[in-house]
Amino acid sequence: MTPITRPPLRGLTLAAIVGLAALPLAACTSGDAPAPESSAAASQDATAGAPGDATPTPTPTTPALVSTPVDLDCSALVDPATVAAAHPGLSPAPVPEGADDDGVTTPLERVAAADGTLCAWTDTAGDTITLGVAQYDDAGLTTLANELVATSNWVPTYGVEGYFDVTQGVGRAEFLPLPYDVVLESTAFVEPGSAEPVASQVVAALEAGGATG
């Protein structure tokens, strides 16, 4: 019988087979595993971005209000007959002193600190309307207007930029017949219209006197 002959393996093919067999071994033994990070370095990396390490952002400060003293007669600002018609029984009275024990400066206390004009009317039941008129520079008026936009409610009926809110039963109307800031407060002011008769007269009196513009 004729023997079956097989072609000899070529050198290149044999080398490839040997190389393939060696790959898994090389993959398992090539290179050393990275050394674990030291505990001290890991601790530094963990604390490097801690929130407490960040530099705090400075809080912007409100610029100081620059005021000019105001010396206006209360009866010229508001006709007593107007007050009596809108709120019967009210008559001129001393301005009540504000409470300073809470550390908060109210708008009327701010008017007093600016050497503004303060007026008050009261009745036998103790209801009181208090008026304050202060004058500030343009920067101060802009600051006050921005605060009112954020903290109060815009009112379109006072003839100038005006706002109204009620806090703890006291209605406060504040409006800006430039260069003045006018504050009206009373427990009788339950909504913007309650303050409108007096507010409109104050604005008209300031305009008639040439004090606004």
Overview in brief:
The protein is of the alpha+beta class and 213 residues long. The chain has helices at 11-29, 39-48, 74-77, 80-86, 107-113, 138-151, 192-208, and strands spanning 67-68, 91-93, 117-122, 128-136, 153-155, 162-167, 170-175, 180-186.
What spatial form do the alpha-carbon principal axes imply? globular
Query: How many helices in DSSP terms?
Result: 7
Instruction: Give the strand content.
Output: 15-25%
| Quantity of strands, as a count | 8
**Can you give the helix content as a percent range?**
25-40%
Quote the average pLDDT.
77
* Rg, Cα atoms, Å: 41 Å
**Secondary-structure element series:** HHEHHEHEEHEEEEH
Estimated structural class: alpha+beta
Low-confidence stretches: 1-31, 46-50, 57-61
Distance between the termini: 129 Å
Largest sheet: 8 strands, antiparallel
